[in-house]
Structures are given as structure tokens and as C-alpha cells.
């Protein structure tokens, strides 16, 4: 892991860009160290494009005494193109535009290879981040792609709590894995999310095996999560990580 | 309104019992006055029986700088018996024990007369409580019987925000009224509530007309609302009443 830039934000948060092999990432640490770490999940649209929202989430986490980090997903941002993923994405778009149902095959082809690459990369980032003096476990995951969050919660024992956005396509396999998840979960659902099947999201919440799981449903579309929903999520992390 | 007892609790909260005509009630006020008021709804089981849970809710409200009050429901506790309500309750119990479906007639007979009496009584209590020097508006309602909370949110303009428990039988009429409710709502749902139809609760949440409405679903049965769910609800009140 190599730091490539460093700046101190006005609220005292230290923002550092890094690379881990070919993978770029950003780490935000609050003034009080060592801090528990929250991994910020996001959709595969590129860290550059996601930066404003990631920064806002990292600042809120820092206000609760939590560090935050995000890494670039495979095929996104400045990382090498991934033709198979682009093909799967094109297939999904074509089905949506033709108003055809999204088959299990289309969703599996889009999501499962992404999970298969992103999860071990996230674990490698965790190995590196947890060696830093300002960072300590336990670790939280706050997810963009639900299938990545579920797999991480299942296979990575350093993750002690997860905030999941029930707002992206979940393969059948994710439902099966959800039944085996046991860490405390805080699940966010946008009630009127135009790009999400509400009943499927409720079914996935029901499927989780965790003894402590909470669903917070709010009005509005995909990107309209209200600020107080983010505050509730940070308090959930504070309860479990501090 | 006549105060009949007064004691100072160890956390500085002033607890006063009162009567308003034939209706007994309890008022809790925090040390810092004047405080916005939260009306504590509860099932018609008697204030005596509900006291430990009401006291806990009032203490948590006081810790957020909120006053809290509860009045005895018609036919409950030390109030005169109400044979028609007892008959409707017996009809419901008989249907449940015979594993028959609860018809609209049974639910209407049980709930609508209770709403018809309890809502104007609550409004009269509000008239009296808001004349006290330690109490100010706006007012919140945190509900036991969902149909009472919905009617109050609809007809009582002093209620600026409501926390509703999606955990009791809702007549068709309550669904119709819910569509007309516009105040901010924070709805609690116990996911595994043995005495509640989860889908009906989700449908009711969907029906509310309020632009700001949040559903917090937690694991466990009817009485198992976790402490952090209560904290979230108090923060909702703090946001809207202070």
C-alpha cells in the first residue's frame, strides 16, 4: 500500500489517496486515533464520480469517531477495462430498455463475477489498512452493491456489523448467502426506488439470518436517502464498533 | 384538570398524577421547561398495568428534553366498565381462539368506538396540558392503538409529528384516513409480531400521505422493541418538536 496524496480537511479529517497494487483507494481518518474502520461500498461507477457522496459519508463517519475507506471496483474508474462486465451491463440495459424481465441469468452474469473479484480485493485492502497506526478493528461495511456486502459479511470475520442498501439487483445466490449471515445488520430501503423491486428488498431483509437486523425504509428514490437515515446508520456503527 | 400526586424522580423528572373530569392521567416533565409534549399512547389495559413501560418511555423522552403524558383509555383501568367494548373484545378473542379470520365487522366493532371516544378525550387533555407553564407545543403522539394515532394525526392540528406502532388491528377506515395524513411519521414494526399481520402493516405504511415517513422494522415479537429503536424515535421527535 502506497500513499499518493494527503490533505487535511477543515474539520480535521485526514484524507489520503493510496494505491494497493493496481487498485486506487481513499482513506479518511478522524483526528482521534486509532479509529474503527468503515469500508464504504459504492456502485461500480468510478471513485471520481462517487467522490462527493463518499466524502460526505466519510465526514459523517469521522464525526462519530470512525475512519472510512473506499477502493475502486474492478473495471471501474481508472482501472483496466473489463469487457465481460461491460457486456453483462449492456445485456442488462438492453433488457431494461426493451421492458423485458431481468432474468436470473442476466443478473448472475452482471453481479457474481463482480462479487468474485471485489470481495478478495476488499479483504486485501483490509489487510493493508489494519496495519496502519490510525486504524483498528472491528470493521464495518456500508454497502453499495448488496451482493458484495452480503458476501463480505459472510466470509470476512473482521466485519462486525454492516449497513446494506437494499437497492441493487440481488442474485438468487445472494439470498442463499443472506440466510447464513449472522453479524448485526442495518438495512436501508428507499420505498419509491425506481430501479429496485420493493418486495424483493423486503424478502431479502426477511432472509438474513442475523439475530439483530433493522430495516429503515424512507421515502424517495434511489439517491434520495435523507440525512437522518445516514445519522441513524452511523449510530448503528458506533454501537457496534466503538 | 386537578393534580392528585407529585414526586420528583432521581433523574430530576417531575411525575404528577392528575384527573381530568373522570379521566386519570400522568404527566412527566423534564427539569428544563417549557418542554414540547409527547402524548404516550398505549393499549387499553389500564395505566397501572402499563406504568412501568410508560415510565421508561417518559424517562427517555425527558432525557431528550421532552415532556410526556398519558391518559386512561375509556373502559380501562379504574374508569367505568364499558360493556359494548368488553363484548367486542370477547368476540375478537373467540374468533382468534377458533382460528377464524378476524372480519372487518369484528375489528370495526372493537376499534372504531374506542377511537371515537379516545380522540376527543385526548384533545381535551391536550387543551388542559398546554395551559401548564412547563409545557409548550408543538405536540407529538407516540401511539399504542394505531387507529387512535392515525385519527389524531388527521384531526388534531397541534400534533406536528407522530410515532406509530404498526402492531394493532387497523380497520379499513384507518387505511382511508392514513391516505389523508400529512404530518411527519416514524412507524415502528416488529417483524415477527405474533399478533400482527406484517403485510397489512407494510400496506398501511405505504398508504400514509405524509411526505416524510420512515419505517423502522426490528426483529422480535410484539413487546420486544429494542432500546435503540426507542432512541431513534425520540430523535425523530427532537427533530420535529424542538
What does this structure look like?
The structure is a homodimer of 242-residue chains. Chain A has one domain: Rossmann fold (3-Layer(aba) Sandwich), CATH 3.40.50. The first copy, chain A, is 42% helix and 24% strand. Chain A is built from seven helices and nine strands, in the order E-E-E-E-H-E-H-H-E-H-E-H-E-H-E-H. In chain A, strands 1-2-3-5-4-6-7-8-9 form a nine-stranded mixed beta sheet, with helices on both faces. The longest helix of chain A has 26 residues, at 104-129. Chain A is globular and about 50 Å long. Chains A and B meet through helix 6, strand 9 and helix 7 of A and helix 6, strand 9 and helix 7 of B.
Sum up the structure in keywords:
24% strand, homodimer, alpha/beta, 242 residues, 9 strands, 7 helices, Rossmann fold
Annotated CATH architecture of chain A: 3-Layer(aba) Sandwich
Oligomeric nature of the chains: homodimer
Radius of gyration of chain A: 17 Å
Describe the strand arrangement of the main beta sheet of chain A, using strand numbers. Answer: 1-2-3-5-4-6-7-8-9
Largest contact between chains:
A-B, 21 and 21 residues
Continuous helix count of chain A: 7
The biggest sheet of chain A amounts to: 9 strands, mixed
Class by alpha and beta content of chain A:
alpha/beta
Silhouette of chain A: globular
CATH class of chain A: Alpha Beta
Summed over residues and divided by their number, the pLDDT of chain A gives a mean of: 94
Beta-strand residue fraction of chain A: 15-25%
Ends distance of chain A: 26 Å
Please report the total strand number of chain A as a whole number: 9
Tell me roughly what share of residues is in helical segments of chain A.
40-55%
Q: Assign the CATH topology of chain A.
A: Rossmann fold
Looking at CATH, the homologous superfamily of chain A is Alpha/Beta hydrolase fold, catalytic domain
SSE order of chain A in H/E notation? EEEEHEHHEHEHEHEH
Count of discrete structural domains of chain A: 1
Unreliable segments of chain A (pLDDT under 50, ≥5 consecutive)?
A: none
Amino acid at each position: 500500500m502506497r500513499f499518493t496524496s494527503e490533505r487535511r480537511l477543515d474539520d480535521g479529517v485526514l484524507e489520503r489517496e493510496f494505491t494497493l497494487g493496481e487498485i486506487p483507494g481513499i482513506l479518511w481518518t478522524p483526528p482521534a486515533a486509532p479509529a474503527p474502520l468503515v469500508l464504504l461500498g459504492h456502485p461500480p461507477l468510478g471513485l471520481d464520480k462517487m467522490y462527493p457522496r463518499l466524502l460526505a459519508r466519510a465526514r459523517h463517519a469521522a464525526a462519530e469517531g470512525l475512519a472510512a475507506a473506499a477502493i475502486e471496483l474492478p473495471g471501474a474508474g481508472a482501472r483496466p477495462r473489463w469487457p465481460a462486465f461491460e457486456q453483462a451491463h449492456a445485456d442488462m440495459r438492453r433488457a431494461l430498455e426493451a421492458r423485458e424481465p431481468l432474468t436470473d441469468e442476466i443478473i448472475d452474469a452482471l453481479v457474481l463475477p463482480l462479487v468474485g473479484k471485489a470481495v478478495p480485493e476488499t479483504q486485501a485492502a483490509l489487510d493493508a489498512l489494519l496495519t496502519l497506526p490510525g486504524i483498528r478493528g472491528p470493521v464495518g461495511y456500508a454497502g453499495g452493491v448488496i451482493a458484495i456486502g452480503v458476501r463480505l459479511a459472510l466470509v470476512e470475520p473482521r466485519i462486525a456489523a454492516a449497513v446494506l442498501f437494499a437497492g441493487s439487483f440481488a442474485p438468487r445466490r445472494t439470498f442463499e448467502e443472506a440466510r447464513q449471515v449472522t453479524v448485526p445488520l442495518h438495512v436501508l430501503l428507499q420505498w419509491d426506488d425506481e430501479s429496485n423491486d420493493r418486495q424483493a428488498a423486503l424478502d431479502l431483509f426477511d432472509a438474513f439470518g442475523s439475530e439483530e437486523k433493522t430495516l429503515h425504509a424512507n421515502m424517495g428514490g434511489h439517491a434520495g436517502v435523507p440525512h437522518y437515515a445516514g445519522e441513524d446508520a452511523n449510530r448503528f456503527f458506533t454501537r457496534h464498533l466503538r
